[in-house]
Please model this.
Amino acid sequence: METKEFRQSAHQLVDWMADYMENTSRYEVKPSIRPGDIKKQLPSAAPVEGEAFSRIFDDFNKIILPGMTHWQHPQFFAYFPTGASGPSILAEMLSSTLGAQCMIWLTSPAAEELEERMMEWLRDMLGLPKSFTGVIQDSSSSATLVALLTAREMRSGYSINQKGFEGNHRFRVYTSAQAHSSVDKDMKIAGLGIDNLVKIEVDETFAMKPDALRKAIDHDLQNGFTPLCVVSTIGTTSSTAIDPIDSISTICKKYSCWHHIDASYAGTALLLPEMRWMSKGAEAADSFVVNPHKWMFTNFDCSAYFVKDKDALIKTFGILPEYLKTPEDHLVNNYRDWGIPLGRRFRALKLWFVIRSFGLKGLQDKIREHISYGQWLKERIAGTPNFQLLAPVPLNLVCFRFVPEGIKDEGSLNEINAKLLSSLNATGKILLTQTKLGHTYALRFVGGSEKTTLGDIQQGWALVEKMATSLKLGKKDLG
Model:
């Protein structure tokens, strides 16, 4: 592509992007298609000759766009938000244009130094201890894996990296029964084995019970296991339950366990001083992760991982072949040694753009607004007949279910709510997801995109009530 054509095409794309961001609500939240519908529109083999950009972009609009779920739609209330904002998108465009490989200082000095400063900014903005040093990972899944591997190597005297497992280590890792499934996956990847992941009982708020954790560790010690790590959660995926970080940190210190805090989504709320009760005790933890690419309006991927002992981190992951040695190695952070991949994208640029564009106050205002939306919805559900709140609402995620009058059987209620969810999502006007809290099927409703308004929340809830009434009356569709 020649520069002239690139310039023309880029202007066309930017105009399309601006229109899309302004008019996302015109699309169905989730496409009404079947598996295979997109693939069958694509040729079975790559083109031999190059094609014009205009034709490629035309196919994007005709084939790809109709098959997309629109995460930035104002009626997208599923999963957790995925960050996006104008400043972040523009920074991604610059990063893509530079095409930099940011594995060490020498390959992109500005990228390394900006990342170092952004992690300092973010640490202080969240009220985390100065003893933490930060690095950007691609996801919380990777960050938790990094924590497990670092804990494994420290406890084994870094022998497993060198010799592999020799059968003399029986490590145990502990996490809440409500923890994210990535912990299970990371146990497999780290070679620790899912059978050695101990799921700790939760209380009525779905937070980990410290006494149950202590008993589990004592039991394992009596049976010849070595307690290695506790993964606690600030804001579980199912219900944003808040584990008692302070008590867990005390237990970890007593038993010499690595304490990793997963605050992937809810950690952004620590921008608000009034929400820092959630992280009390974090100063005693060993590592902490929060994802600006969820609730801080920063495009995926950008996962901020903080660690107290950076030397242990580097000793776990550091590799120094001759072709990567540089004269500056002793003066800088070479982030290729701070995680799993050698190659690294310039992720700090978009975080810099976002923080500077919003400012701390602007970010705080947005998060307070979103929390207030969750509280509005909580009160609305609590006051609406035939609906039941199923978990506390510390932030903006609300878990609830529809309970038609006269129906008490739990199996029937689970079926009814699964049908309600399916019916809602089939309209294309809204998207929710489900979870299980104990044996109870729960609908999750969370609004946290940059442009979400209280009106969007109210409109979405009105559709939930209308659809529930339709099911109650035996109607099939509201249109």
